[in-house]
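Propose amino acids for all 87 sites.
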């Protein structure tokens, strides 16, 4: 399972488990979804690639996603290392 899949599963659990949201949580979630939607347009249908708000790319065709996946995994690890205080 990729880093994105693990994160998505964890977030799905947290989102569906939480019955009430604070106004700040709701706003942050909506802004994140809006940023994702704004990063993409009809070009997705031509390129089969999704631009992520963090500057990373996700290729919808698994056989083309390898290099992008490696970069995304490295980005996720770097973010984790920053939060965890490790390098």
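Proposal:
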């Amino acid at each position: 399972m990729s880093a994105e899949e693990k994160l998505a599963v964890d977030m799905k659990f947290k989102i569906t488990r939480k019955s009430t949201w604070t106004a700040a949580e709701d706003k942050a979630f909506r802004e994140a979804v809006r940023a994702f939607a704004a990063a993409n347009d009809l070009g997705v249908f031509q390129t089969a690639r999704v631009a992520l708000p963090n500057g990373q790319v996700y290729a919808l065709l698994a056989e083309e996603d390898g290099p992008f996946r490696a970069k995304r995994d490295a980005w996720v690890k770097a973010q984790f290392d920053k939060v965890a205080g490790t390098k």
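The chain has one domain: 22-84. The helical segments are 3-17, 23-38, 43-47, 62-84.
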